[in-house]
Write a structure and sequence with these properties.
The complex is a heterodimer.
Chain A: H1 7-14, E1 27-33, E2 38-47, E3 50-59, H2 62-75, H3 80-85, H4 88-94, H5 105-116
Antiparallel strand pairs in A: 1-2, 2-3
Chain B: H1 4-7, E1 17-18, E2 22-23, E3 25-26, H2 37-50, H3 60-79, E4 87-90, H4 93-108, E5 114-118, H5 127-136, E6 139-143, H6 153-159, E7 164-170, H7 182-191, E8 195-199, H8 211-214, E9 218-222, E10 233-237, H9 239-242, E11 255-258, E12 263-265, H10 279-295, H11 297-315, E13 321-324, E14 335-340, H12 345-354, E15 357-358, E16 360-362, H13 367-372, E17 378-382, H14 389-406
Parallel strand pairs in B: 3-15, 5-6, 5-7, 7-8, 8-9
Antiparallel strand pairs in B: 1-2, 4-10, 9-10, 11-12, 13-14, 14-17, 16-17
Helix pairs in contact in B: 2-10, 3-10, 4-5, 10-11, 11-14, 12-14
Classes of the chains: A alpha+beta, B alpha/beta.
Chain lengths: 120, 408
């Protein structure tokens, strides 16, 4: 079977973590892959430089869904600086992969591109 | 009818394996078709034996190259039952449609006029008109697509009126797979003095096209979708309409006489070929036309109809699938697109790819159509002369794998 669909990816894609919306977010970050129809809206509650809470919602493929889910877990409770600097390499490591097919890279990067809005 | 299993042997790429030795099952022909050895050979032969610029050199190769270019142009025009002087060579359908904007619409459409197109158009027949309409201050209207995925003819008749300068529409939809009655629409349009542009990208590979019988004013097509090379296609223009057009590329090759003050231009269609043309690809496209003519387009369309009908019947048995476009195979041509309930099209395509099956997933350059029906993205299997029922069986087995991986 396809190497891409590791158990951890199927697990997050099937049961996305932190899915939903926050009542009083301090940041709402939107990003989309127009050509695939994927979109994500991440909401962060940042207090004292820390990501106190995070929720996200969106539609997308298994890769982008798993990626959003895992990113939300990674940044929750961490300093905002960590969320801003989250890299593709680290995310791939969390997924147990060294690299991703070039055609699916944009799916993986969707939540990271959303987080980049924090720095703008 | 021809045997596609024998035809397959003419296409060397279909022999190869992908993804750890899986035989390639190529079901993405609507994006681009594969090329038979005869087409590949014609290009190699041109470059190894005859290459020289056309119209220019008084030498053996110049003669050969020029002769081959003219012969190729004749063959391509004849394939569409058109006259050679009705064919402008273009890179592809997109360039041909954009060319109509500059060569014709620029002079004949003004503020308050209407361009009528449809909700099912490929971006290539929508964006050029949208941008043109904004620039010119004319309006753009869209003929509705019905819930069953067909052109709403009642809506078309309502919207087609005096003041509509052009109907721009696809012959066959690349997403819905539906065939549009362009001959009937051309008749209706001409009654109110409206010209008709047909996007033939998805029809030229499958249907016998008689440009004059079709009755449209412009017919755009891409060679690479009809077993020809990439980078060559054409725009057929009704002879009468040429009188109301001007070239949009000026320079060498398209002139008669040039002085520092003025220029006279070559005759049609040479006036529309500025600069050195892609002779090798033109020769390659002619080889493709010959290849298809030898099979017989009447046979090609029969083969396609059988495949579409078989694919529809097999796919509709899978309960997780929602098929896009009409369920009546007789209304369709070339492809079947579907949505897998609960699994994104990219994931479907990825699993199929791991089985050696190439399909297209995404919006297929019809975002407004996807938005209208609220489809996230769709997966499309598309066919050509080398496609077999066995290929579709492999696809069906591949779709079962999607269920295994995602448990849906």
């Amino acid at each position: 079977m396809s190497d891409l669909y590791q158990e951890i990816i199927l697990n997050h894609a099937g049961n996305p973590r932190n899915f939903g919306t926050l009542t009083h977010p301090t940041h709402t970050l939107k990003e989309a892959n127009a050509s695939c129809g994927d979109m994500v809206e991440m909401q962060l509650l940042v207090k004292n430089g820390k990501v106190q809470d995070v929720k996200w919602r969106g539609v997308g493929c298994a890769i982008s869904t798993a990626s959003c889910s895992m990113v939300s877990e990674l940044i929750k409770g961490k300093p905002i600086a960590f969320a801003k600097k989250l890299t593709e390499k680290l995310l791939l490591k969390e997924m147990g992969m060294n690299a991703i097919l070039p055609t699916r890279e944009k799916c993986l990067l969707l939540p990271l591109r959303a987080l980049q809005h924090l720095s703008q | 009818m021809f045997d596609p299993n024998i035809i397959k042997k003419d296409f060397p790429i279909l022999n190869r394996t992908v993804r750890n030795g899986k035989p390639l099952v190529y079901l993405d022909s609507a994006a681009t078709s594969q090329k038979p050895q005869a087409v590949i050979d014609s290009i190699v032969e041109y470059y190894t034996q005859h290459n020289a610029n056309v119209h220019r050199g008084i030498h053996a190769l110049g003669d050969e190259s020029t002769r081959m270019f003219y012969a190729a142009r004749n063959t391509i025009a004849k394939f569409f039952s058109a006259d050679t002087n009705e064919l402008i060579l273009m890179r592809n359908t997109t360039e041909a449609i954009n060319a109509v904007v500059y060569m014709w619409a620029e002079d004949h459409v003004s503020v308050g006029d209407v361009i009528l197109t449809t909700e099912m158009e490929h971006h290539s027949n929508l964006v050029p008109w949208q941008v043109f309409a904004k620039r010119k201050g004319c309006s753009i209207e869209y003929v509705r697509v019905t819930e069953s995925g067909e052109l709403d003819m009642a809506d078309l008749k309502k919207k087609l009126r005096k003041g509509v300068k052009l109907v721009a529409m696809s012959h066959v939809s690349n997403t819905l797979g539906v065939m549009n009655p362009v001959a009937e629409i051309s008749k209706l349009a001409h009654v109110v003095g409206t010209l008709v542009l047909v996007d033939g990208a998805q029809s030229a590979p499958h249907l016998p096209i008689d440009f004059h019988k079709l009755g449209c004013d412009f017919f755009a097509f891409s060679g690479h979708k009809m077993v020809g090379p990439m980078g060559i296609g054409g725009l057929l223009v009704r002879a009468e309409v040429f009188k109301h057009m001007h070239p949009f590329l000026y320079g060498g090759g398209m002139i008669n006489e040039v002085s520092l003050d003025t220029t006279t231009f070559a005759d049609v269609p040479d006036a529309y070929i500025a600069g050195t043309p892609d002779v090798a690809s033109t020769v390659g496209l002619a080889a493709a036309c010959n290849y298809l003519s030898k099979l017989g387009m009447e046979q090609v369309v029969k083969h396609d109809a059988e495949l579409v009908s078989y694919a529809l019947n097999q796919l509709k048995k899978i309960s997780q699938l929602h098929i896009v476009g009409p369920m009546d195979a007789r209304k369709r041509c070339g492809s079947v697109a579907f949505i897998y309930d609960g699994v994104h099209a990219h994931d479907v395509a990825q699993i199929l790819d791991s089985e050696g099956i190439a399909v297209r997933s995404g919006h297929h350059c019809t975002m407004p159509l996807h938005a209208k029906f609220k489809w996230g993205a769709t997966t499309r299997a598309s066919f050509n002369v080398y496609t077999t029922k066995e290929d579709i069986d492999v696809l069906i087995r591949g779709i079962q794998k999607v269920k295994e991986v995602f448990g849906k």
